[in-house]
Amino acid sequence: MSPRARERRAGASGRSSPSGRSSASRRSPVRRRGRRPGRRRQRVGDRAAGLLVAAVLAVALVAAVVDWLLDHWWVMAVVAVLAAGAGAVVVHLKRQRARWEAVRARGLRYALPQLDALHHARFEEAVRDLLLRDGCRDAVRVGGRGDLGADVTATDPYGRRWVVQCKHRRDGAAGSAVGTPDLQVLNGTARPVHGADVAVIVTNGRVTGPAVAFARQQRLHVVDRPALGVWASGSRPLWELLTSLPPSRERTGGS
């Protein structure tokens, strides 16, 4: 063999040896083991078996209770009698309470010194109670922040909606007088906001002359200290003490 042939052979063997090592050193990709479908099936089967056992136990329990009740039917009769008796007692107590409330409302009276001593919130409640006494079954106190000029609302037996603004004066007649601005607030909200048929301002104090004149112009009603004394201490409803009230809604609807 010539020297050139030997060199070529040696070069070829030198180039092939690294490639052989690299191919041998390559690792085959690792195969990931997937979840065995047998485990899923086993879990589903366990759940189904648990539900089946629970259903069987529930049916057995219901059947046992029904059998026991059939054997002891008198227990159901006793329970029914007791339930009926309890219901009758509850109804009787409600009716008795309603009668007591009606009697209390009919006999409700306030003297002016009593009203003077009240907190302004209690004064609003007293006005509400007087309207309840008069026959306004839905009278409710709504006074508070954001009341928009309405402290008490009610519907009288003639279907008229009353919106009342209360002005309590701790010093009574000696306190500050109710002025035109107070009437302006009532006039601005009673009808457009609260849907009043009758807008009233009630106070245990005084009302200025201009405020009274403004009330007449705007068809507002003023219950000052003397009028409040007559209303609170007597038995006549408020609408019998006021004049120029709108007609009954019932009569208007029927005409």
UniProtKB/TrEMBL annotation:
Pfam families: Mrr_cat. It comes from the Bacteria. GO terms for biological process: DNA restriction-modification system. GO terms for molecular function: DNA binding; restriction endodeoxyribonuclease activity. Residues 1-10 have a biased composition (Basic and acidic residues). Residues 1-43 are annotated as: Disordered. This is Restriction endonuclease. The lineage of its organism: Bacteria, Bacillati, Actinomycetota, Actinomycetes, Kitasatosporales.
